[in-house]
Design a protein that fits this description.
Elements: H1 3-26, E1 27-29, E2 41-48, H2 53-57, H3 62-85, E3 91-94, H4 96-101, H5 103-111, E4 115-118, H6 129-147, E5 153-154, H7 160-165, E6 170-171, E7 181-183, E8 192-194, H8 224-241, E9 243-249, H9 251-254, H10 257-271, E10 276-277, H11 281-290
Parallel strand pairs: 2-3, 2-9, 2-10, 3-4, 5-6, 6-8
Antiparallel strand pairs: 1-7, 7-8
Length: 292
């Protein structure tokens, strides 16, 4: 092998190893969590209540934006009713702008004991540090004004240091593992808890017709019964292993009647097994932090 090529490969390998070591130092998976009252599995039902804010930023046509309006006017209420009927406490990740558009639904969710968490100001995190800080501040203020309580968790890539500065105790964005983990500085300082979710349990991956300007080959409109079986198999595996599961929904996607019916069946199947806990993300985070 040419000496120059070998040297380049050695340098690339050294760089990859350094990156891996840095990543490992900042991400610490919690191998085993003891849940309250001997529960075997914690299942977080989460909803990203963005109602097409990203599509608004991309200036997409009214026909697409109408899907988001359905989520705010109909879908979110159906999800609240579904969770209430099962006595499940969900976490609703909410952009600050949504507090201006659909405050009544957020207040109703909070009254039912659901957690209202942060999902950015307008469904994006600015690259400019001062603008990022301003967006986070406005989101916190909007949620507190709407439901009377500041958020303590986020589904975003806001900087860890900024989140901790504002009293956040968890995030649910990084999907590096199937178990909760600590995200920290390279020396282990200033950790924040991450509650992972994965796109394999995200409704938008299965029911996203005309998703973000995608072409025909990327359209997805799957049979809800088929998705139910996929998610049930995922649940079965998590249940066998014990631990954690985070299901991500969107009111404009899962709020459709046939998908609400599918979720109702899925929840009934989950509840039929002993030792399944359905808390909010904050409840999971507080439990893990308290047991640390």
């Amino acid at each position: 092998m040419d000496t120059a090529i070998a040297n380049d490969l050695d340098q690339d390998l050294a760089a990859l190893k350094a990156k891996a070591a840095d990543y490992g130092a900042r991400h610490k998976v919690i191998e085993k969590v003891e849940w309250p009252q001997g529960m075997r599995l914690a299942v977080n039902f989460t909803a990203d209540f963005d109602t097409m804010l990203l599509r608004r930023l991309l200036n997409e046509p009214p026909q697409q934006l109408a899907k988001g309006e359905f989520g705010g006017r109909v879908g979110i209420w159906r999800l609240i009713d579904l969770f209430d009927s099962h006595n499940i406490k969900a976490t609703i990740f909410t952009p600050g702008r949504i507090c201006e558009l659909y405050p009544d639904s957020l207040r109703a969710a909070a009254r039912s004991g659901h957690e209202i968490a942060d999902h950015m100001w307008e469904h994006r995190v600015p690259k400019e540090p001062e603008l990022e800080r301003d967006h986070l501040r406005k989101t916190i203020e909007a949620i507190e004004k709407t439901v009377g309580r500041k958020p303590v968790g986020t589904r975003s890539n806001h900087s860890r240091e900024l989140l901790l500065e504002h009293g956040y105790v968890y995030m649910s964005e990084d999907s590096m593992d199937h178990q909760p983990s600590w995200l920290s500085a390279p020396d282990g300082a200033k950790p924040i808890l991450n509650l992972p979710f994965h796109y394999a349990i995200d409704d938008a991956m299965f029911f996203s017709f005309a998703w973000l300007g995608s072409d025909n080959s990327a359209q997805r409109m799957m049979d809800p019964d088929h998705v139910e079986e996929i998610w049930w198999r995922m649940f079965e595996q998590c249940y066998r292993d014990g631990g954690y599961m985070n299901i991500c929904m969107h009111p404009f996607v899962s709020g459709r009647a046939l998908r609400i019916a599918m979720l109702d069946r899925l929840i009934n199947r989950m509840k039929a097994l002993p030792g399944v806990w359905f808390p909010t993300c904050e409840q999971v985070a507080r439990h893990i932090i308290g047991a640390r």
